[in-house]
Structures are given as structure tokens and as C-alpha cells.
Amino acid sequence: METQVLTPHVYWAQRHRELYLRVELSDVQNPAISITENVLHFRAQGHGAKGDNVYEFHLEFFDLVKPEPVHKLTQRQVNITVQKKVSRWWERLTKQEKRPLFLAPDFDRWLDESDAEMELRAKEEERLNKLRLESEGSPETFTSLKKGYLFMYNLVQLLGFSWIFVNLTVRFCILGKEYFYDTFHTVADMMYFCQMLALVETLNAAIGVTSSPVLPSLIQFLGRNFILFIIFGTTEEMQNKAVVFFVFYSWSAIEIFRYPFYMLSCIDVDWDVLTWLRYTMWIPLYPLGCLSEAVAVIQSIPVFNESGRFSFTLPYPVKMKVQFSLFLQVYLVMLFLGVVLNMNQKLFRTEPHGASVKAPDNHPSDLSQTAVETFKLAVLLLKQLKVLGWLFGAEWAHFQTK
Q: What element of type H or E holds 87?
């Protein structure tokens, strides 16, 4: 006598990517579930409509599926999930048009095609929103990344300018005035690196990473690089002058106070001593640096006149030769005006990096304080002019010994 094959009740539903089958068997243990040649094979011991027996069934799918079914056992049923190879809506579950008697739709999970497409669009939109949030990051994450980036940038600049400052100081202490004429060849590479990296500071202000004004940062970047790459970099005669030492020393001295101040500001640390040094040392160092730059430009004028470098002739009918020294003279005037305006703003409206401070009212006490500060600035500039006068004298003596 042939043994009768018992089949359980199976309910199915679908989505565009998946098939869901619910096998009505309770207390199932160690089911055998596999897919071979696009046919689902099921065999298990459990309690079904015919009591506690072995139940099995086979289903040949309507279209291709992936041969890795996933099943989950519960006390009352077996849930099977099958992935479609092509994401699309099937008109039926099995390849044969006639539905097996044990198979029925799972109305608890059933969706028609339009509802399924709406669900699919909702899931896709949810996935895109999740990806967008991950790419944009939370505001706290963006702020942390920005602070870390600014901290590392200021740290690199601090290390670069500190190396220049220490190198110049040590060599001057060991070699004395003779080192003035070899400054460019010992620290120029590092100065090139730091000044080119300073472009990042201007870009940060331009794109809103920092709240610094763009124009002052851009003017300083262009001015310093004009001195470094044009005045010093293109003329070997200027590279051997003592003024290079004073320009490099003043630049590096300013930055070894400025960049650590910005570093601590990135991590919301306020060190009163560093703040005082940053805004006090700037008062003598900034005009000294600008005066050194002016001396470098003045000394380069005869060099460019003699070599004719960067000079050009206007086209017909003018046919007039324009010396590069003409632009240098205009640059000197602009440099002087920039120093006066910047000193006036910084001395009497000194403010932290990126902060805005209300200008003081013109009370009598404020005006008297302004007069005192102006007098101090005048004395300071006179002293620095004496230093630069000695510099001219040193240059002249060095020229005569050659």
C-alpha cells in the first residue's frame, strides 16, 4: 500500500523583491527546506491538519529565484522568505497556471501591485534619506570635524613658523651678522611651504569655515607672497641681502603667537597670557615687518631696472617701455596706506579672531587714551626706523666689501 503524502496549508504573499510563504505547522523540528532548479522543496515533522505527521510539498516558481531561502520557526508556523532574482511583480506564484489545492494567498500580508509600489517608493525614499543624513552628518559631527580640521591646520602652520623662528634665532646667535646674508638659502623652502599653505586660511574665510573677513586675509596672502616669490624668489641679488632676515624673522615672530591663539580658540580654550601676547606683540612686530618689506621693495628697484625683468613695451602707437619699478613704487604707496589703516583699526578696535566688538564711544577719556596710544606708536615707529637705518648701513658696508 502506497503511503499518502501529507501537505500542509501554505499561504503566500509577495513584494517586488521577495516572496513570503507561511506554512501552517506547529511544533516543527529540523525542517528540510531547499531550492533546486527553481523548485522549493519542503519536508518537516510537525502538527498539522492531519495530526502529528511528516508533511511535505514542492513548488516550482513562476520566475527565477535565488537558491538561498531563509526560514524562521515559531510555535505555530514556519515562515519562509525567498529572494527574486529580478525585482518585479509576479502574476502568480507557481509556473503552472492551476494553483495547488494546499496553496492560498496570505491576506494578512497581501498587497496589490499599486500598494506594493507605494511601499517600495517609501522604502527607497527612506533609504535615500538615510544616506543623505549619513553623508551630511549631524550638526554636532560637522562642528567637531570643522574644529578638528582648523586645529590641525593651525598646528601645522605653528610648527612651520616655529621652525623658521628657532632656526633664525639660533643661527644669528651662533654666526652673528654674517648670517643675515645667507638667510634665504637656509629657510626659504619652509617659508615657501608655510606661505603657500596660508592660501587655505583665505579659502576658509571665503567659504564660511571661519568668520574672518576675506579681504584682509587675501591682501596679506598676496602681499607676503609678492615679496617672497617676486622680490626674493626671482632675483638672486636680493636673496643675499640682510633684509631677508628681518622680513622672515618678523613674519615668523607674528605667527608663533597668532596660530597657537587660533588653535586654542578652535577647542574653546581661552588663555589670558596667550591672548595678551597675541594682541600686544603684534603692535611692534606688524609695522616692523611692513617696514622690512618696504626696504626690500626699495632695494629691489635698481635690481629690476638693471635686469629689465618684468618690464614691457606698450604696443603701437605708444611704444613706451614700462619699467617694473613703476609698479613697485605704486606698491610702496599701497603698503604704507595699508599699514596706517590696519594699525588704526587694530590698535583701537582690537578684537578676537572672528568676534565683533562695538567701537568705543568718543568720551574725553577715550580720546585722551587714543592720543597716548598714538604717541606711543609714533615713538615705536621712530625706533624701528633707526633699526632699518642701521640695516641700510649694514647693506652699504657689505656692498663696499665686495
A: none
